[in-house]
Amino acid sequence: MQKLSVEEIKKLAEKIAKEKLAPHASEIDQNRSFPWENICELRKAGFFGLGIAEFDRVRFATVVKEIAKACPSTALVYVSHSIVEKAIEYTGSEAIKKKWPLEILRKRGLGAFAVHEPDCGSNAGAITTQAKKDGDIYLVNGSKFFITSAGEADLYLVLVRTDPEKGPQGMSTLLIEKDTPGLSFGLPEDKMGLRSTSSREMFFGDCRVPVDHLIGKEGEGTQVIGKAVIGWGFFGAAAISVGIAQAATDLSIKHAKERIIAGQPIGAHQAVQFMITDMTVETEAADALLNNCANKADSFPDTAIINGLKAKLFASEIAVDVTNKAIQVHGGHGYCREYVVERLFRDARGLLLHFKTSEWLRQDIAKATLGL
Ligand SMILES: Cc1cc2nc3c(=O)[nH]c(=O)nc-3n(C[C@H](O)[C@H](O)[C@H](O)COP(=O)(O)OP(=O)(O)OC[C@H]3O[C@@H](n4cnc5c(N)ncnc54)[C@H](O)[C@@H]3O)c2cc1C
User: Fold this and answer.
1) Does residue 314 have its Cβ closer than 6 Å to ligand 1?
2) In degrees, to the nearest 5, what angle opens at C-alpha 296 toward C-alphas 295 and 300?
3) Last residue of a domain, one of 162, 194, 217
4) Residue whose CA is closest, atom 44 of ligand 1?
5) Which of 18, 201, 250, 273 gives a 20 to 30 Å CA spacing to 226?
6) Helices 340-350, 234-258: inter-axial angle, 10-degree rounding
7) Which mutation among 122, 128, 148 tests ligand 1's pocket best, with the greatest number of atoms within 8 A of CB?
């Protein structure tokens, strides 16, 4: 895909999201079906192979927002995949780039990233999954928890400990293929929201990974995760939240005009107007912050981490507040499965936990701001 303007890319993504993704978003949420058809549509549109599509964070966030307005689960699967592409682009060796060129990922193959473990929370420094070098392979042992697209994706970016003595400097990242001997998956979690994303545990039992699947150098795991997950993926997480908030706001404005009680639309009441005002302003503020942070990160890549943390924190909290108000505007209807705002609220809630909890984000931002 030649480099499209932000406006052109928005129009393209909006068309696909409205025509192809939105019509069955509620159905796949209820059935917990993995959104393979949607992934195919995004691939056909040229939204995979991000490096060759010359996506910057602003364009990426633009596409993700439109996808999320229609189907946040699909947006999360897409963002998780994009992290693997970016890890390859930013830090992959020539051998890795040859084995998984972005041209191939553009046509087939889905990626996912696996940092979280049952006992590490948002603290990647507490992971215990080990990778021990044995000739030309790493023997990987341990488990990863709550991994989006686990069992469905073909290629996993996995944070492991290559030197247990070295703390953060002892962590590395490996690319592990789905059919690698010693890798197995748990059952999908029955989640509150983002239900078609397939969150599963990954088990590594003497999993044999060729040494040339190392991404970056040994000991550079934190940097790879910083660049690909925080410095790129967090903008995707923020964009999902903004997309959700925008969709909830649009639906609420429509409902406030159409719902007539005692001869009056509910939007005629000041109490409802105030909620609509807050939703509109909050969503616009989150979108503006996301665009501002993405622009800064694109222009000054050294600032990508702090900007990613800020955009994600603000947008994910706004999305929960806005979708909560959307349910209020919809009254009892908004509490029913039949209404899209009910799903949007459940989906927004997951983003307060994933990609670091709000508590961790606040701590990280404070430390960076205070230089601690
Ligand atoms: C929908 C979804 C998809 C996900 N997909 C992926 C994925 O693809 N890949 C991946 O690697 N992970 C994924 N995760 C995991 C996600 O990263 C973790 O859920 C998240 O980091 C929080 O960890 P936890 O669930 O263990 O919560 P806990 O760490 O148990 O946290 C519980 C509470 O304690 C607070 N807390 C914990 N420690 C501290 C502290 N030191 N200071 C202050 N407060 C603290 C937390 O903020 C939170 O409020 C996903 C999660 C969700 C919900």
Assistant:
1) no
2) 120
3) 217
4) 359
5) 201
6) 160
7) 122
